[in-house]
Amino acid sequence: MSRELLVRTASGVTLGLVVLALTWIGGLAFKLLSVVGMGLVFYEWFRIVQTRQLSKTVWAIGAVSLLLVAICIFARWGGLAMAVSAAGAGLCMLVRALEGRDAWPAIGVVYAGFAGVAFAELRDSGQYGFAILIFLFAVVWATDICAYFGGRHFGGPKLAPVISPGKTWSGFAIGLFGGVVAGTIAAVVLVGSSVGWIIVLATLISVSGQVGDLFESGFKRQFGVKDSGTIIPGHGGVMDRVDSIIFAAFSAYLVGVALPGHRMSADGGNGIALQLLGP
Predict the structure, then answer these.
(1) Cβ pair 167, 218 in contact under 8 A
(2) pLDDT digits (tens, 9 = 90+) for 101-149
(3) Which end of the chain, N or C, is more open, meaning fewer C-beta atoms within 10 Å of its C-beta?
(4) Residues with Cβ within 8 Å of residue 99, at least 6 apart in sequence
(5) DSSP one-letter code for 236
(6) What ranges do the domains of the chain cover?
(7) Which pLDDT value is given to residue 117?
(8) Quick check: 198 and 273 in contact, CB under 8 A?
(9) 208/160 Cα distance (integer angstroms)
C-alpha cells in the first residue's frame, strides 16, 4: 500500500469513527459537530469565492448570520435557524448586487447554514434520530462506493462531462442501486420500517446525494479549484467529504417536515425522523 493511500485510508477511517461516535452520543456533542461542520463549510466556501474579491462586509454578514444560526441550533429553534440563514443569504446577495458582483457568497451562507440545521434537527428527532442518520450514511456511503467502482468497471456514456468528466450513467445507476439496498437494510434492521416506503426514501436520498456531488464539482470547476481545503489528510477539505451528505440530509429534512400528520416523538424530539422511518 502506497503512503498516500495509507494516509487517505487512515484519515477516512478515523474521521468516520469520530462522526459515528458523536452521532451515537447525540445531544450537545452532535450539535457541536453540526455547528463546527457548518463553520468549516462556510469558511472553505468563502475562501474559494475570495478569489473574486469578497468585501469585509460580505464576510461579516456571512459570519454573523451563521453565528446566529448556531445559537438557534443549540436552542432547538430549527425553523428560525433556517429563516436566519435565508435572511443572511439575502443580505449578502443585496450587498454583492450593489457591488456589481455575483451571488456565490449568498449561496454559501444557505449551503452551510441549511446543512448545519438539517443535521442537528434530524439527530434531535427523539427515538429515531440516531437511526435516520445511520440510514443516511448507509445510503450515501454505499452510493458513493458503488458509483465509483461501478463506473470504473462498466464505463459508458458520461453523466455530466462538463461538470465532472469522470462520472458515468452506469456509475449513477449502480450507485443508486447500492444506496437503496444499503439504506433499506439499515432501516429495516434498526427500526423495522416499511420496505416499500424506505425504497422510495432511499432512492430520493441517493439521487440527492449524487446531485450534491455534482453541485460541488460544478462550484469548484467554476473557480478552478481541485480541493475545497487541506484539513483532512489525503481527502482535501470538509466540503469534499460532505458534498453528497449535505444534499441528502436536507432532502430528508424537507420530506420529514412536509409529510402530513407530523408527530412529536415520545422523548420530546421534533418527530422528523419518526415521520421518515416510523413503521
Answers:
(1) no
(2) 999 999 999 999 999 999 999 999 878 899 999 999 999 999 999 998 9
(3) N
(4) 55
(5) B
(6) 23-124, 127-258
(7) 96
(8) no
(9) 15
Burial class (CB in 10 A: 0-12, 13-18, 19+), 233: middle
Nearest to 144 by CA among 118, 117, 171: 171
User: Cα separation of 71 and 125, whole Å?
Assistant: 18
Contact 230, 202 (CB under 8 A): no
Alpha helices in the chain, H assignment, sequence order: 3-25, 27-49, 56-74, 78-98, 104-123, 129-154, 169-190, 195-222, 238-258, 272-277
> Which phi and psi (to 5°) does residue 225 adopt?
-110, 135
Q: What angle do CA 103, 107, 110 make, to 5 degrees?
A: 145
Closest CA to 129 of 14, 238, 34, 229: 34
Contact 42, 59 (CB under 8 A): no
What cell does 202 get?
432511499
Distance of CA 81 to the CA centre of its chain: 16
Residue type, position 249, single letter: A
**Model confidence pLDDT, tens digit, residues 237-248:** 889 888 899 999
Report residue 192 as a C-alpha cell.
423495522
User: What string of H, E and C letters represents the secondary structure of 66-95?
Assistant: HHHHHHHHHCCCHHHHHHHHHHHHHHHHHH
